[in-house]
Amino acid sequence: MEKRDKLEEIYIKTIDISPNSQLIIKLINLLRNEYTSIEEIEEYLAKDKGLTAKFLRIANSPYYGMSRKIKTVKDALLLIGLESAKSLIFATSVIYLYKNFGEFEKRLWEHSLGVGLFSSLLSTALGHISPDLFLAAGILHDIGKIFLYNANSNYYQNIHENILKSERETIDIENEKIGVNHAEMGAFVAEKWNYPDEIKKVIKYHHNFPYPYVKERIYSEICTIIRISDQTCLDLGLGFKKEIPPRIDYGDLKIDANLVKNLRKIFIHQFSHQKKFLLDLS
Ligand SMILES: [Fe+2]
Ligand SMILES: [Fe+2]
Prior knowledge:
Helix content: 55-70%
CATH class of the largest domain: Mainly Alpha
Strand content: under 5%
Bound molecules: fe (ii) ion
Number of strands: 0
CATH topology of the largest domain: Hypothetical protein af1432
Distance between the termini: 37 Å
CATH superfamily of the largest domain: Hypothetical protein af1432
Number of domains: 2
CATH architecture of the largest domain: Orthogonal Bundle
Radius of gyration: 18 Å
Number of helices: 15
Shape: globular
């Protein structure tokens, strides 16, 4: 079977089994349209109590540091800002793809959120003005895993057990056992759903070596930040395994290894506080 056919076959399985997968496509189109107004987003979310509740929970988390409780979507959109809110809704909508919120999904969500939060911390420290893009890219970087898991859950869970014990790279094991890996799978979806270019690159190249793999400067920095965050979270045990020590040469990246080390301490402290707001999405 051609690789594209295989990716399409796995993609269709998620679309078939997740009753909300059509909603996510509609929502992405709405959010990607720069002319979409606050009222239109409000109207859309009004139809979906589940997503609204999750969105408000995150909007009220210490991440946004609001001094008063945000009770309505309109409040959230005004206080957080339209662009930040769009980015947050866009990223959290992956939850729609989960079959249920079982053990696998919980761990994946914890890992993805950790990567998102660390990325936004690191990007802010490096002077980027849109930490929300980094938050979204971090939350979405492993989206391909949801599709591989949905297509054959027991099989993929077993593969993950092997990955936990193995010293080998995750994507090598996936290639061998499934014929495609989660980075390719995610890239296929990101292309289909017209994700922003930066996020497409992150999803596609976050396991490629040598690093940074992406040559274009405008993309290489976000890819590097997500990669460092991914490795940091894996190293902290947020997610599925402690990976082989990060193969990142800070010398080439103009990012100070000590800065990452210090942020790691801040992150551990912040994440333990944010956890209770963000992790329970059932
Ligand atoms: Fe990954
Ligand atoms: Fe990851």
